Amino acid sequence: MSITAKIHLGGKEFEFPTTEGSEGEKAIEISSLRSKTGYITLDEGYGNTGSCCSAITYIDGDKGILRYRGYPIEELAEKSSFIEVSFLLIYGHLPSRDELRRFSDLLTQNQVLHENMKHHFEGFPQDSHPMAMLSAMINASSCFYPGLMGSANRERFDIHAARLISQVRTIAAFSYRKSRGLPITYPKPAYKYTPNFLHMMFSEPYAEYEPKVEVLRALDLIFLLHADHEQNCSTSTVRMVASSQANLFASAAAGVCALWGPLHGGANQAVIEMLNEIHASGDDGRRFIEEAKDKNSGKRLMGFGHRVYRNYDPRARIIKKACDALFKALHITDPLLEIAQRLEEAALNDSYFVERKLYPNVDFYSGIIMRAIGIPTEMFTVLFAIGRMPGWIANFKEIIEDPKSRINRPRQIYVGPTVQSYVPMEERGK
Ligand code: ACO
């Protein structure tokens, strides 16, 4: 039996259809609300608004569930790799051996930037934030591929998607080298995705970087865990831009900008800055917890809380375990890890965080792993962007393949001045 929603407005009754997703999520379809009633919905921050139907990622924030194309994140983290998961997200199924080989070959063939792109790096000041360089360079690289501008067809999409996944990593490493005044290291075709990134970051002309297997595993896991997260701020931005039929690179560059903010992807950098501040002040975390609870302090416990998760973020659980394993394998310690563990324990036993259902999110421990690998703090959000690229591409593909896709254009309730007459300068006062 189909369920309808009834709204009573001004003595009249209006009916709206409902829809249900494959995991039982329910929505009231209100696309005819304004034309029927003259009203729109108002939902600042979109906490109750479904912007699309999507078959890519499922989250149950109350139960702490995350699945890519139906596969639990825990299983993928244990058995898969970032590149296999990228294929899964974009094409909807786990690749066969041949499909995975073709996909990997396409990534390798498209990993080198156009040589002229190198001049663009020269134009940035030495201390530019790598996220600024990343978004600018992704957008600029679209100029080198005229095929991007035409209508999307399957073959073109495959190449451009591979190019973007591969080149975002090359651009990221080049940005880092440039910001340190180091010579650029080119990718090696023989290397796989994650080793190649570390090679471009850390190999010198006179010394090849040789990562430990535990480091490779930890970094690949970080990319995999960040690969998609349904309609978050940056993915919604990518979909918004894509809905205007802007090209894939322009849409992804906009996603990078949205990701940069400290309330979103920038939180991994903010967590380490917070832990450093706590460490430098000699606090064991207790003072900071009190500050984070005080709305007037302007501080928050970074890496805690999530719009959707009202439970432990499943990615944080996996990352925390990986962090412990990496530190054990490398025989290292970090005072910031100890502070983070104390903060977590204190927060999970504090009624402020318990009542608001604030738990560690993916960013709480990921920065500590990246620090252990030798990734500089300002590159943390860039690594998030590398990981999130397949998710953005999958969402872009969903938009361009949907024959019903329309330009995204929310409405507003105007609260500014009503009509006014223009006042000449001499009558305006001082
Ligand atoms: N520290 C202290 N208090 C917090 C925190 C925090 N980290 N997060 C939320 N709160 C409080 C809010 O002050 C609010 O309290 P109130 O009800 O007394 O006013 C309540 O918890 C609800 O918080 P909102 O801001 O309404 O939650 P929202 O869903 O809008 O924000 C967000 C979610 C942005 C993630 C928030 O929890 C936050 O700022 N966390 C820290 C930044 C962070 O880690 N971001 C990464 C998110 S994951 C990602 O993007 C990959």
Question: How would you sum up this structure, described in words?
Answer:
The protein is mainly α. It has helices spanning 33-37, 73-79, 82-91, 97-109, 117-122, 130-141, 154-179, 193-202, 213-225, 233-242, 248-259, 267-281, 286-293, 314-330, 335-348, 351-355, 363-373, 380-401; strands at residues 4-9, 12-20, 26-28, 57-60, 65-68, 71-72. It has a three-stranded antiparallel sheet. Helix 6 runs antiparallel to helix 11 (248-259) and helix 10 (233-242) crosses helix 18. It is globular and about 80 Å long. The protein starts with a strand and ends in a 29-residue tail after the last helix. The model has no long low-confidence stretch (mean pLDDT 94). Acetyl coenzyme *A binds next to loops. Acetyl coenzyme *A (ACO) binds next to loops.
Which terms summarize this structure?
18 helices; binds acetyl coenzyme *A; three-stranded antiparallel β-sheet; 430 residues; 6 strands; mainly alpha
Q: What's the gist of this structure?
A:
With 430 residues, the protein is mainly α. It has 18 helices and six strands.
Biggest sheet strand order reads: 1-2-3
Q: Approximately what portion of the residues adopt beta-strand conformation?
A: 5-15%
Q: How far do the termini sit from each other?
A: 67 Å
Main beta sheet: strand number and arrangement? 3 strands, antiparallel
Mean pLDDT: 94
- Rg measurement, Å: 24 Å
